[in-house]
Amino acid sequence: ADVHHYDFFVREANFTRLCNTKTMLVVNDSYPGPEIRVHRGDTVFVNVHNQGSYGFTIHWHGVKQPRNPWSDGPEYITQCPIEPGTNFTYEVILSDEIGTLWWHAHSDWTRGSVHGAFVILPAENETYPFRTPDADQTIILQSWYNEDFLQLIRNSLLTGQAVGPPNAYAINGHLGDTYGCNDTIFRMEVDYQETYLLRIINAAMNEEKFFSIANHTLTVVAQDASYVQRFATDYIMISPGQTMDVLVQANQNIGQYYMVMRNFHDSAAPSNNSITTGIFQYRNSVGGLISNASLVKLPQPDDTNATNTFLARIRNTRVRQNPRFNVPRRINRRVYIAISTNSIPCTNPECVTLTRTRFVAALNNVSFEFPTLDILQAYYNRSNGVFTTDFPQEPPEFYNFTGDLSGLNTNVTMGTRAVTLNYNEAVEIVFQATQLGAGGSHPLHLHGFSFYKVGTGSGNFNNVTDPRSYNLVNPPLINTVHVPARGWVALRFFANNPGVWFMHCHFERHSSWGMDTVFIVRNGAAANESILPPPPGMPVCSAA
Ligand code: C2O
Ligand code: CU
C-alpha cells in the first residue's frame, strides 16, 4: 500500500451563479474541491491550511479510520477547529473501503462549499468485479445558495426559524440550463460504445435526490464504498452523504442527452423541486439535444414507491473484492432510536420577536448540544464535564409513532449524551421515523463504521415480528441509511473500532437542530484493540 500527501489550501474565492457573485470558502480555489484518488488500503496525509477567516474541520466520509478517531474530523466531537492561520495534517487510514467516498468540512454549514470526491481504486494487484470501465467520472450533486452558508445557519439558529430551500442545485459546480441566468452546464464527453463508471456523490445540504440520464440504462455496482449485486435501472435515489457507483454504456445514437436530477421529498417542509441538468455528450455529435421525452423516466418528487422499489433492489455481493462479509446473526444490544423534529419555546430576542418558538430536532427526545471542548480528548484524558454517557437506548415512551400525535408529550431535553459500547459487541440500531414536526425521511450516518442494513418497513417497528423478516444473507453494507418517512430501518454491526464516533442525520438542517448523538466504543483487551495515540499538532479549543 502507498502513502500519499495532499495539501488543502482553504480560503475564500468568488463564484458567479444565478446572475450573482458571492464569496465562499473553498479548497484550492475550486468548487467542488480537489479529488483524492488513491488505491485500496493506502494511507493519505492531508495537510489542511486554514487561510480563511473562521475555524473549521474536515471529515473523510465513510473512511472507517481503524483505531484512529483523531483524524475523523467532526468539530467538537473528535477535534477542535483548525483556526485561521494554522494548519493540521490528517492521517486518513484506508482499510477495506473500495469505490467512491467523499470528504467535506464538518463544522456548521461549511460543507456546502468545502467538499470533494475521494476515489478508491482497486489495489495494484486487484481487479474490478466487472469488466474494467474505459473511464470514470465523478458526479457531485450540490446545493446552491445565494447567501453565505455560515450566515445562513447562524441566522437560522438565532431566529429559531428554518433555513429555506436552496436557490438552485448544481452538478460538479454547474447549475445547468433550467435557472434562466446563462449558467454553465456540466458536459460529460463520451465515446460511442465505451463504458463509464459514474461515481455519484450526494453532497446536497438537505435533499435526497433522483438522478437519471435520458435514454441510457444505469447499472448500479457499488454503494458507500462496497460492491453490490449489479442491477439495471432507469434512475437512482441517493441520500445526502451517500455515494453510488454506476456503469453506463454510451450505446445510443450519437448525440447529446440530458442528465437530470431532482429531489425526492417526503415531508411537509418546503422544498425546491426544480430539475437540474447536465449533458451526456457523445464526441463528434452534431445538432441539438435529444432530450425531453425521456425526462419522464425521472420519478416525481413525491414518488415514495420509486424510492422504496429502488432501495429494495440493493443487495450485498460476496465477490472476493468486497469487504469480508460479517453480519451479526445474534445481537448483544439493540438501541432503538425515535427521530423527531419539534418546536419549543425560545428565549433569545431575535427569536421571540418573530414566533416565540424555535425548531429543534431530537433522537429519543434528546436534542444534541455541541460541547466547546471536544469529546474525544475529554474521553481520552478522562476529564469530566464535557459529555455524559446516558443517551437513552429506547424512546421515553412507546407510543404510536406514525399515527396521530397531537396529544403527545413532546418534551425535548438538551444534552451531550453518548452511548457507550463494549469492544466488539454485536449491535443493532433501529431508527424509527415519527410524524412529529414535518415528519419525513432522514439519512442517518454513523462515523467509524460501515453497517449492514438488515431490515426496513413502514409503520411502527415491532421488536417481535419485524426481526423475523430481516435479511441476514445479503444485506447492503453502507455508512448512511435512508430512514423512510413513517417507517423504520434496522442496522447491525460489530463494535470493533474503538473510538468516539459521531452519528447524525445528514440533512444539515436537522443535524444543526440536534439530531445527533455519539457512540463511544471502549478499547478491547489486546494491544491492537485500543485507540492510537493522538497525532502531533491536534488543534486546541479556544475554550480550553
Ligand atoms: Cu458526511 Cu458526519 O458526515
Ligand atoms: Cu433528518
Automatic annotation (TrEMBL):
Details of cofactor binding: Binds 4 Cu cations per monomer.
EC top class, as a word: oxidoreductase
Reaction(s) this enzyme catalyzes, per UniProt: 4 hydroquinone + O2 = 4 benzosemiquinone + 2 H2O
Primary localization class, coarse: secreted
EC nos: 1.10.3.2
Gene3D superfamilies: Cupredoxins - blue copper proteins
Cofactor(s) required, per the database record: Cu cation
Domain Plastocyanin-like residue range list: 10-123, 137-284, 393-524
A Pfam family reported for this protein in Swiss-Prot or TrEMBL: Cu-oxidase
Keyword annotations from UniProtKB, A to Z: Apoplast, Copper, Glycoprotein, Lignin degradation, Metal-binding, Oxidoreductase, Repeat, Secreted, Signal
Subcellular location: Secreted, Extracellular space, Apoplast
UniProt keyword Oxidoreductase, yes or no: yes
InterPro entries: Cu-oxidase-like_N, Cu-oxidase_2nd, Cu-oxidase_C, Cu-oxidase_fam, Cu_oxidase_Cu_BS, Cupredoxin, CuRO_1_LCC, CuRO_2_LCC
Functional description taken from the UniProt entry: Lignin degradation and detoxification of lignin-derived products.
Family classification: Belongs to the multicopper oxidase family.
Protein name: Laccase
Organism: Hibiscus sabdariffa
